[in-house]
Amino acid sequence: MIAHIKRRASLFSILGLVAVLAVFVSLFFTSSTFRSVELGIAEHSPLGFAGGYVVPASCPSYAHTTGECDPPADTPPPDYSVTVNPTSVIRGQSATLTWTPIIALLDREDSKIGLLGAFGINVAHAAVAAYTVSIDQGIGSVPESGSTQVSPLVTTTYTVTVTWAGGTRTYSATLTVLPPNGTEDLCSNIAGTQTTVPPGFTRVTSGSQAGQCIQGTSCTPPQTDMCSNVTGCQTSVPSGYAFNNTTGQCDLETCSLGASPSTIQPGSSSTLSWSCSQSSSAAGGGFSTGGAASGSQSVSPSVTTNYTVQCSVGCSTSKTITVINPALTLSVASSRVNPHASTMISWSAANVNSCTLTGGSVSTSCSSGASCASAHTISTGNLTQQTIYTLSCATDVGAKTASATVFITPTVCEVGTAGCPE
Known about the structure:
Elements: H1 2-29, E1 53-55, E2 80-85, E3 88-90, E4 95-101, H2 114-118, E5 125-127, E6 131-135, E7 140-142, E8 146-150, E9 156-164, E10 167-178, E11 202-203, E12 213-214, E13 241-243, E14 250-252, E15 255-260, E16 263-264, E17 270-276, E18 282-285, E19 294-299, E20 305-311, E21 316-323, E22 327-332, E23 336-337, E24 344-350, E25 354-359, E26 362-366, H3 369-373, E27 376-379, E28 387-395, E29 398-408
Parallel strand pairs: 3-10, 16-21, 23-29
Antiparallel strand pairs: 1-5, 2-4, 4-8, 6-7, 6-9, 9-10, 11-12, 13-14, 15-17, 17-19, 18-20, 20-21, 22-24, 24-27, 25-26, 25-28, 28-29
């Protein structure tokens, strides 16, 4: 009899322990609202900060239709952990961006939990309503957990957005991008290393322009301003600019094309010299660059010619070589005159800057190309001896001259007669 009582007491103890454990599990996983009759497991139960919805263990493991196996649509998803590793890189290096739930929910398949599982009793498992995960900075929709390599040009904050029927949550992590010298530049878009934010600027700490210091308007996320030092929202490096990996800015390319000399005569040559500050190659118009971004080339145009150079980044420029052929005209109405007689001199000069006509008592000039090109005449005055007249002109291709001579006709007379020299 006593043994029988002891066996019954042991059985009651075991049953009591099971009951206590069942109550403990229901209190741990559930709220005070009970609907399911299965083991008295409460069904409406956010799992603390992890979120979730406890459903009976007999529910299907995957998509449900209707009824108590379905979590409410506004059941919040788990919180997320978002990390970048490493947290800072030198510009040009990459880091791993990882997003995962903070803690794993209970297995969505039927499970045995805690001490009840030790007794072989299937209890509840957790379920969540449908939700999506996306990341800004151009990454877009992603799986519920995962990782990806990122290599921003400037310090960037990555924001993970979790969306479900009941709302959204955001989580973020920042990757600091240092210039090659390893010193943090507070304003990656301003030339030089900025250890403080300049007056009139504001440092952006998140979004597509994180790490930049801006004035006025900026790009609207998720747009990224590649060239914050260029007016407007530049989502790509514009033509004529090159991205500077050291400063994080877009440098305006400068290009040049020169000619020495820039004015030549027919048959002469000139040397073209060109350079492109940001390009790796260039093409010539009217001459060959050989693909080089800088260099020199000799040319000999027979007429005035315009040459161009086109740099691969986008800058272009031109240079004209002027070919001129100065033409001086000088003549006398009579190349031989009697003593004490005179004649007329005619002269003009094309493609010159100025001219001077000298000889005997004559001295005259013109001071411009237009005036020199006009026809001029002047008297020699009475001549008693042979006289040479010289037209000297200054031109863009050097000094040019022309000359004409007036001779005196000798006289025949009888010596001793009046007027005849002895």
